[in-house]
Structure formats: C-alpha cells, structure tokens
C-alpha cells in the first residue's frame, strides 16, 4: 500500500495535518480526533476563572486512539510491521483500545499485556473488540507491574516470529501522534498560556506542548503525576490510579518541557472526578480527576485572563466500579477526601515521599539522560 492509498483510507498521514471528521465515516479510524472543548469553572475556580478541557473521551476509544493508529501506520510505512503480523504491547487499557482500533483498521492481530489491576469491563471490551488480553500475575520485584508487563511483552515477542511492539514508552511516534491535537487546540482556542497534562508514558504532554509552543512560545506546561510514581523522581510504591504515573522512567517524558509537576493522591482524584460529573456532566478516570484538580488550582491562582487548557484523556465509563463506586472507595479509604485549597510544596522532587497533592517547580530527569547523552554515555 502506498502513502496515497493510506491517506485515502485512513485519514491524514502527516501528524501535523488537521482533517475534519467526515459527515459519514467509512472507517472507525476516521472518527478519531477533532474532539470538543468544555469550559470548566466551579467548584474548581470561581465563575469566570476556569479552564478549557479537551475531551479526549469523545474519541471512539480514548486519547490513545491517536498514538495507536499513528504508531502502527508509521511502523507499516517503515516496514517494521509487515502486513498481517501480530502487534504485542503493554497497556493499562487506553492504548490497548487504540491498538485494537489500529489492528482492525490495518489488519493485524493485537495482544495487550496487562495486569490484574485492569478493570474487568476493559478486559471484556478489549476482547469484544478482537484483542487478546494477556495478564501477568505478579509484579517485578523492583520495577513493579509495568516492568513485569514489559518482560512479558519481550517473552511473547521472542515466541511469535515477526511480531511488533510499538513500545509506547520510548517510541517517538507516540509523541508525534499528538501534533493534530495541538493543531485542534490552536484552532479552537487560539493563544494558550498554560497546558495541564497527566503523565504516564509522557507522550501526550510532550507532543501537545511541542505543537502548541510553535504558536504560543511562552506556554507553561504543568505535569500531573500520581503519588508513588517514579517518573519525576519520587520513590515508587503501590499505585491505585491507572493511566498516569509509572514505576519506570519512560524515555518519552520531555522533562525540559515542564515548568512544574504536581503529584496527586487517589482520594483527591476521586473527589475531583465526582465533582466534575455532578457539575459539568463531563468527567473521566483517575487522570481526568487529577488534571482537573491541578487545572482548577491554576485557574484560581494565576492572573485573571490566563488561558488554561487541560487534557481529559478519557471518559468515566470504565471507572464505574472504582472511582464512582462508593463501596469500593470506602474499602480503599478514599471516599470523601476533600483536597486542600493549595498543594504542599517541595523544593526538590526527591525531598521526601509525598502522600497527597504536592507541587514542585524543579523538574529533572531522575536518570539525567540529557547529560548522559551529551557525555556520550549510552
Ligand atoms: C487514562 C490515561 N490518562 C493519562 C495517560 C497518560 O498519558 P501519556 O502516556 O501520554 O503520558 C494514560 C496513558 O496510558 C491514560 O491511559
């Protein structure tokens, strides 16, 4: 298949392109992108002082439909993924949905490697969409569930000849996939002063910020992470929240792009998710709640007129048995946690292990990879 026929069948080839959703789509992949923006103010900020939420839950599967399709399209064009060959990837769910869409679109079987924390509804949904879900049963002693999943992916790749793993943690196409989202935001909002984004692989924060900075060079990027996540230099611990946070240090995180990072605890995200749902109808999962909490704080504390965009990666449906289930939240001790008005503040990301909403305006790569690269260390 040449580039032109790919364009005809599956929408824009260039990640910078910005194609409208057709009135009648011939393929589900054409329904990805051009998601709406919703104004969010109270109870996060006083009237007139809100933020603009980009509702990525309006994609057929969620935000990761974008990198799912883009990484597979590019791998096929490079010849890294041969026609009909299997795709195997580790995912907490959202990329699995995007890869299921890519598999269906381009004709590849998809295996999603996950862990017991994947919601049963997501396992069923992925299976219904034609993907195979392979669950690891125990965490890696130091690298946690993520490392265990990555090792299982390596095992499956070795066993299946010609199989391809997109490796969302370090594949630059995961970052490049978000150029259209940045173009959409510019078309929808014009100038943007602040972007608030959750960080898991680092893909969407890096890609959207890079695209926005071409138009708004002074953009501030606020990263939102989970407590007990290693990404920004905190000690790893058990995490209830999925999507944001990681027990590894993904290469796609663009540390230099962030002006500050906030860590959020599960109870605080639950409070924000439920408030969003009640007041604004639009809500989502852990990352949506955590991002809303931080974006609301930015809207309250930054000068009036600051234009703040926030990315809501998915919708609420897969979280009905967790975030929105009173009994489950009581069991976890996270129901009725009202977040503080202001986050705690630490001067360095590893000052101490944070247990609730905390901010740090020093953002560093815990592995200092830029310096290692400059010194020729690999
Ligand atoms: C629901 C959800 N929110 C946020 C993220 C983090 O996005 P990224 O991997 O682009 O950093 C993910 C990643 O899997 C996700 O699934």
TrEMBL record:
<protein>
    <submittedName>
        <fullName>PLP-dependent cysteine synthase family protein</fullName>
    </submittedName>
</protein>
<keyword id="KW-0663">Pyridoxal phosphate</keyword>
<dbReference type="InterPro" id="IPR036052">
    <property type="entry name" value="TrpB-like_PALP_sf"/>
</dbReference>
<dbReference type="InterPro" id="IPR001926">
    <property type="entry name" value="TrpB-like_PALP"/>
</dbReference>
<feature type="domain" description="Tryptophan synthase beta chain-like PALP">
    <location>
        <begin position="30"/>
        <end position="314"/>
    </location>
</feature>
<dbReference type="Pfam" id="PF00291">
    <property type="entry name" value="PALP"/>
</dbReference>
<dbReference type="InterPro" id="IPR050214">
    <property type="entry name" value="Cys_Synth/Cystath_Beta-Synth"/>
</dbReference>
